[in-house]
Specification:
The structure holds 3 protein chains of 3 kinds.
Chain A: H1 7-22, H2 27-55, E1 59-63, E2 72-76, H3 78-97, H4 99-105, H5 111-130, H6 134-153, H7 159-190, H8 195-208, H9 212-229, H10 239-245, H11 248-274, H12 276-282, H13 284-305, H14 309-330, H15 333-362, H16 376-379, H17 381-395, H18 401-416, H19 419-446, H20 462-480, H21 483-495
Antiparallel strand pairs in A: 1-2
Helix pairs in contact in A: 1-2, 1-5, 2-3, 2-5, 3-5, 3-11, 3-15, 3-20, 3-21, 5-6, 5-11, 6-7, 6-11, 7-9, 7-10, 8-11, 9-11, 10-11, 10-14, 11-12, 11-14, 11-15, 13-14, 13-19, 14-15, 14-18, 14-19, 15-17, 15-18, 15-20, 15-21, 17-19, 17-20, 18-19, 18-20
Chain B: H1 2-6, H2 8-26, H3 30-52, H4 75-106, H5 111-120
Helix pairs in contact in B: 2-3, 3-4
Chain C: H1 2-9, H2 11-20, H3 23-30, H4 32-66, H5 68-94, H6 110-123, H7 128-136, H8 138-159, H9 190-212, H10 221-239, H11 241-244, H12 250-276, H13 297-319
Helix pairs in contact in C: 6-7, 7-8, 8-12, 8-13, 9-10, 10-13, 12-13
Classes of the chains: A mainly alpha, B mainly alpha, C mainly alpha.
């Protein structure tokens, strides 16, 4: 076995034990160690991606001495490595972007524990991406749940953050309860926990028609459990509070990565566990499609009404998750590819917006209300530029990242040619208009001179500037030279079967 | 229908699961929500445990060197239950810690009241 | 006054107090320092009560405007509806599932067959479940120990009070130290202490026995660790923090869980790496049934046991007003 093939497994172990190591270090050393871990994971994932692209086929990696149905294993394909590099890279940039906020929002003796949480969170995200076993998926979903709630809770001196954590945690636990009982029923009717073996048994069961009702309930349970966790429309109520009240890095990580981890797991289950033809037959895609359309419109309307910049961005996330579910809901390969592209686009755009928002808070006395941040874009020019780039990308202006995924969503919808096409196109048009309705006023507020000049400012740290530059660069890169990534995503989805 | 009585453990388990789920979703008292969560998880463990049981077979600890399928029950669900229990212990501890913090702050356990009170206070 | 105090020290009086459960008098007779602290505490409590009253009055005003009665009734009806709907759907599922206890169920397939029939030879563990979770499916269990660790970290972030090097509580902005209750210690409950002296070593020994025999009989790291943790909690309840501080502080938790989890991760990295690259691991499996057998399972059980014991005790101390 090639040395490169070990990197996915090593990156999971490195991040898991990185969390443990951070818990005994002092705050600043923990920060350095966390940077080291995330950078090496990023490099490793990129190397693995190059290797998988060059060989052109996926491989499974045995976790232990026992082969497939007896031992655990992870599976590495193109899409998995893309997601792993994306997750570790954006995690690194988000941490850099909000670094001094982390040290302000935690006590001196507890700041190292923040890096413990971040490291374990990246371990669980990597494991969710790579896993080939449903029960491993469940265990790491739980780590993900606790870590992401703890990232909100880190500002426990603010009552709102505490309340948001409790709501977030209860909703997430409902989701994981449904997910677990889904696994249990599936294990009962198939006798396996490994994805490939379940897929074989399920297709046999589907052809013979046995256990038809339990199978459709399992589909419902999986979709509902993971939809709750990824804040799909009717279950999105916890999201604005959690993302709006967390510290800057936490908001970036939660909106950019944690939601995506669950969605990726859902796509994986649809493709590799249940099988897309059965999902079609159960009409689960139609339900997700409708949820997506509602999320796109209602999230945007809620965002227009918001008076607080961070909560506005959080509601915008609800709408963007709607785009992803719209793509999944189309159910075609092109739709799923568009959904994956939107996952990437949103993951490189929303953390940039949250980091810029942290910059505005620094120059506005820590407030994030529209009335207080007037003119903040003029006081902190780099954050202002980053915000413009992010907003343009979210609206879908050409040459920005968001344009690409919208183009692919549109073509996927046109290819589908049924009533869904009309609905999807209408929803995309309305949602784009509504996006403009809240991002443009926000930009106007940020770039008009305030009546009273605020004096209290915080100098921008070098880390944050660097992170913003890289974010802006990534956005243009994705907007202008997207073809290789699109090809890789399409190749990755083809590898799923 | 008769299957419900043959599968009586599972029947009980799903009823408890639903009760726990509803309590956790809709009860306003934080402690009762946590109890609901534990109901839900324990119901899943009951469900899993009876999945592993096979009529007349013993726990999977090898006695007198007998190693055949006919002697022992399925060990997989037992392992899953073990993993699941640890997860639910951890989550319960986290939830209780959050409840303690909220109670120190607002002196009530009613989540709706807490939300109203937290909206009133400034950051 | 002096005479009365001496009289209070007589064993007979103590027994009467104890029988009457006369706590209030017990505190007063104990120490003047405690008395002063209680006085301070009362003042703080009065302030707190004032705050609670304010909160309550604002809530009552809200309740009037919201129409709470109607709300609560509809809430109840809605929850019953949700529960019944869910029960009906899931009962429909159960009515189609394979029968309970039937040997021909799909779950009794080649997977469990290999675990049972060759588990002893492949892992060296007599307890097949231990062999399964620590060798065949060890990746799950690795994740699971980190779930426990991350929960402990979250609880520590939320509840740990900051004690300076002088042992005094450091105040944090925005957090009221409502929880300080050390002035009531030590409680000197004679029965509890005597029983603890007898039971503590036995419980710890039993816990260690369960950990060490995890691969031979029922038990293992998680159950044994929980038993040891329970013993620590009992000791703390009987003798108070001043005694437990001598052997268990925050640093103990930090370093023990660090050492165990890192050892665990390293051992498993070795075995995963050799397994995936088709190398021979070279770990002797030993003779089945002996204590020193079954390869990595025994050290892993010890690591898990240490983590679980520390974490359980940490949960307890954190819930008991935030210190160690």
């Amino acid at each position: 076995m090639n040395l490169v093939q070990n990197f996915p497994f090593l990156s999971i172990i490195l991040t898991l034990s990185g969390g443990v190591v951070c818990s005994v270090l002092k705050g600043s050393n923990a920060r350095k160690y966390c940077y080291f871990v995330l950078t090496s994971v990023l490099v490793g994932s990129l190397l693995t991606m190059a290797y998988v692209l060059s060989t052109g086929e996926s491989y499974v990696y045995m976790m232990g001495h026992f082969p497939a149905p007896w031992g655990n294993e992870i599976r590495v394909g193109v899409l998995e490595t893309i997601m792993a590099s994306l997750f570790s890279g954006i995690m690194l940039l988000s941490l850099m972007g909000g670094m001094h906020h982390i040290f302000e929002d935690t006590e001196d003796t507890k700041s190292n524990l923040y890096f413990t949480l971040v490291s374990l969170l990246s371990a669980s995200l990597l494991a969710l991406v790579y896993t080939n076993d449903l029960f491993t998926g469940y265990v790491f979903v739980e780590i993900n749940t606790i870590a992401s709630c703890a990232l909100v809770m880190i500002r426990y001196r603010s009552g709102k953050a505490l309340v948001a954590t409790v709501r977030y945690l209860f909703m997430s636990l409902l989701g994981s309860g449904l997910f677990l009982i889904g696994i249990t029923i599936l294990y009962d009717i198939t006798g396996h926990l490994l994805m490939e073996n379940i897929a074989q048994s399920v297709s046999v069961l589907f052809q013979t028609g046995t256990y038809a009702f339990p199978l459709s309930v399992v589909v419902v349970l999986f979709s509902m459990g993971l939809a709750i966790k990824s804040a799909c429309f009717p279950f999105h109520t916890w999201l604005p509070g959690a993302h709006g009240n967390a510290t800057v890095s936490s908001s970036s990580i939660l909106s950019g990565l944690v939601l995506k981890g669950y969605i990726f797991l859902l796509i994986k289950i649809f493709y590799r566990v249940i099988g897309m033809n059965i999902i079609f037959h159960e009409r689960a895609t139609n339900v997700l499609f409708i949820f997506g359309v509602f999320a796109m419109i209602i999230g945007s309307i809620k965002a227009i009404q918001e008076k607080d910049l961070k909560r506005m961005l959080a509601y915008s996330s609800v709408a963007q998750i709607g785009y992803i579910f719209l793509g999944i809901g189309l159910g075609t390969e092109a739709g799923i590819a568009a959904a994956c592209l939107h996952i990437i686009v949103h993951a490189i755009t929303k953390p940039m917006l949250f980091t810029a928002c942290g910059g505005f808070m620094d120059v506005s006395g820590g407030s994030k209300k529209f009335s207080d941040i007037q003119g903040a874009g003029l006081r902190d020019k780099l954050s202002g530029i980053a915000f413009i780039v992010g907003a343009m990308s979210m609206i879908g202006i050409p040459f920005f990242a968001g344009f690409i995924s919208k183009v692919y969503l549109t073509t996927a919808a046109i290819e589908y040619s049924s009533i869904k096409t009309v609905v999807a196109l209408a929803a995309l048009a309305i949602s784009t208009l509504l996006n403009a309705c809240y991002y443009i006023p926000a930009m106007l507020v940020l770039f008009t001179h305030p009546k009273t000049e605020k004096v209290h400012t915080h100098p921008r740290s070098k880390e944050m500037s660097l992170s913003l530059y890289i974010f802006i660069g990534l956005n243009f890169l994705m907007g202008c030279f997207s073809q290789p990534i699109v090809n890789a995503v399409i190749q990755g989805i083809a590898m799923f079967r | 229908m008769i299957q419900l009585f043959i599968n009586y453990y599972e029947t009980v388990a799903v009823i408890i699961f639903s009760i726990g789920f509803t309590t956790m979703l809709l009860n306003r008292n934080l402690i009762k929500k946590i109890i609901g969560f534990n109901f839900m998880d324990c119901a899943i463990y009951l469900f899993l445990a009876c999945k592993g049981y096979v009529e007349g077979r013993k726990a999977p600890i090898i006695i007198d060197g007998v190693q055949s399928m006919e002697a022992y029950i399925n060990p997989v669900p037992s392992g899953l239950v073990l993993t699941g229990i640890v997860v639910s212990v951890s989550v319960t501890a986290f939830l209780l810690a959050l409840t303690i913090r909220l109670y120190y702050r607002y002196h009530t356990l009613d989540i709706e009241e807490i939300i109203v009170l937290s909206k009133k206070e400034e950051d | 006054m002096k005479i009365r105090e001496d009289y209070e020290q007589v064993g007979w009086r103590k027994l009467i107090h104890w029988v009457n459960a006369d706590l209030q008098e017990d505190y007063i007779s104990k120490d003047h320092v405690i008395h002063d602290q209680l006085h301070l505490k009362e003042n703080a409590a009065q302030e707190k009560n004032k705050r609670i009253d304010e909160l309550k009055s604002s809530l009552q005003a809200l309740a009037k405007t919201h129409g709470k009665q109607w709300y609560e009734k509809s809430y109840r009806i809605f929850s019953i509806f949700v529960a019944v709907a869910m029960i009906i759907v899931l009962l429909g599922v159960v009515s189609q599932l394979p029968s309970f206890g039937d040997p021909s169920n799909p779950a009794n397939n080649e997977v469990s067959e290999r675990y049972i029939e060759s588990g002893l030879q492949e892992t060296g563990a007599v307890n097949i479940v231990a062999g399964m979770i620590l060798d065949y499916r060890a990746f799950d269990t690795l994740g699971e120990s980190h779930v426990l660790f991350i929960a402990a970290v979250s609880v520590l972030i939320l509840l740990r009070m900051d004690y300076g090097s002088d042992g005094k509580l450091r105040k944090t902005k925005g957090i009221r130290d409502e929880g300080y209750d050390r002035m009531y210690e030590p409680r000197n409950d004679l029965i509890l202490q005597t029983v603890t002296r007898l039971l503590f070593p036995m419980i710890v020994l039993f816990g260690i026995y369960v950990i060490l025999n995890g691969h031979i009989s029922a038990g293992g790291g998680f159950s044994g660790g929980a038993i040891v943790g329970a013993a620590l909690i009992l000791y703390n309840n009987a003798f108070g923090f001043n005694k437990t501080k001598r052997f268990f502080t925050y640093n103990t938790f930090k370093w023990v869980s660090f050492a165990s989890l890192i050892t665990y991760a390293l051992l498993k990295t070795y075995s995963f790496y050799t397994g995936a690259n088709h190398l021979h691991s070279g770990i002797p499996l030993g003779e089945p049934g002996a204590i020193l057998s079954s390869g990595l399972i025994l050290p892993l059980n010890i690591c898990v046991g240490c983590v679980v014991a520390c974490t359980m005790y940490t949960f307890f101390t954190m819930f008991r007003k935030g210190g160690m």
